[in-house]
Amino acid sequence: MASRRAQPRTVGTYARRLLVIGYLFLLVIWPVALVVQKTFEGGLDNLQTALSDPVVTDALQLTVVVALWAVAINTVFGVGISLLLVRYEFRGRGILSALIDLPLSVSPVVVGLALLLAYGGTNGTFGPALEDIGLQVAFATPGIIMATAFVSLPLVIREVVPVLHEIGTEQEQAATSLGAGPWQTFWRITLPSIKWALVYGVVLSLARALGEFGAVKIISGNVAQQTQTATLVVEQKYQDFEQGSAYATSFLLALIAVAALVVVTILRPKDDSDGD
Amino acid sequence: MGIEIRGVNKNFGDFVALQDIDLSIPSGQLTALLGPSGGGKSTLLRIIAGLESSDSGTIEIEGLDATGLPAQKRNVGFVFQHYAAFKHMTVEKNVAFGLEIRKKPKDEVKRRVAELLKLVHLEQFSHRLPSQLSGGQRQRMALARALAIEPSVLLLDEPFGALDAKVRKELREWLRRLHDEVHVTTVFVTHDQEEALEVSDNLVVINDGRIEQVGSPDDLYDRPASEFVLSFLGPVTRLGDHLIRPHDIDITRYEHAATTSGTITRWTRVGFEIRLEVTPDDTLHPDPVQVIVTRTEATALQLNEGDTVWLRPRAGAETVVS
What we know:
The complex is a heterodimer of chains A (276) and B (322). With 276 residues, chain A is mainly α.
């Protein structure tokens, strides 16, 4: 491939770089740095205050539980739907493919409201029936998990689908001709081939799940120490003039997400798609 | 025995891929399915392997009715044009795949893999990934992988199609020698008539979803059943109302009985052969005739562009009247 660096560096090159870096700095780096700075303004006080506040710790715990469930659900269904979209011809495939993107285009608040209408305990379409068998969805953990899974559904699929297209079906056919059944082919051939796309999708899902706010706020009811997730705590603490705790919780949320991305970037082979 | 194909039909929508195919492929031989692209030969091979299902008809493999059997139960070795190497596995693991699926004991797998890697000359590459191999090496690995399961038949779909000319020639000679050692019933698909003539014991010419002719390479080359077979197996030219191979034409500077006269209108040298284009004086057949002579012959006859020459079929040459 021809190198894009062949042309000599000119004033224009530096001007373009400055523009990009300036843009990122003003939009992302500086504001996030401010959160970090505010968190550690009084040394570790803010973090200590936040972590000794049961409202914060319960919320963090709930966020982790919800994120793990949502990611697990999205991994299984994400791979399943991706295989369905790429490997099978059926009526309505185009519609399904478009529907997958819906959670990215619809406001999470709408998602929360829609789930409430469907699963609300007293007025929802399925809510009362589910409560009769002892399963409370709205204003409880299952509802929060559903909302979170919904908004992060496309992330795994959008990573996995192009890779499935790229690897084609020949390796799977070869495995079949060598005597492998559908499950053996999936575990031994398909899954290892999409491994890195899946890991990346999972990490993006995780980051999205940790940060979800709008949909969760509506479906959870936002009850402290019961259905309040970390993002909801940040908002509440900030409004209650406990900015220190708000900064500290924000910092922790950002830390987990960044750590996940860094780990994947380190683990991911530099050139995992060589050969043809 | 071998492979018995009876009444196989296959359509893709409106497109007829295969039409009433009846074919017996003999056991232990190397059979080539030869034909132009899109003629249905790959589809037939995939139907034998169970990777594609036929609309009607039956497939019998070594005496066993395989028609309704899924691909993984047919015990067929399949080699793909683009290798279909398992990219995340080493060469060794690739070859061991079928044996591990069959839950063979570890030491047996190890022994068998070592044997096969020796057979395909890849012993020193056993710990490499497919991406670290050349195309020819990948295809040999794919072959070892297919042979590992001791298949009842070995099927190769354009196995050398993705390789460059030199490697392709080496590999086809190697396949011939390998087959002489292993003796497994082998069917390979190719659109290259030279490859088919050189390697196979038995040739099946397929065109437009139908079988044109079946026989030994000599049979087909010397006694083509149709104009299509004649023209597909090698270069062909028209001399009068006969179709004939350009190297089966006798060229002289003197008039003989039953000859066509003409002028040399083109003179091309390709290595050891001289390709001539002779435009006949005969106004009924004015199309130029292609003639191939050796350089020695051309020098002896002092042939030059613009010369008048006489042409006739060589003694014993096969021609088809059309």
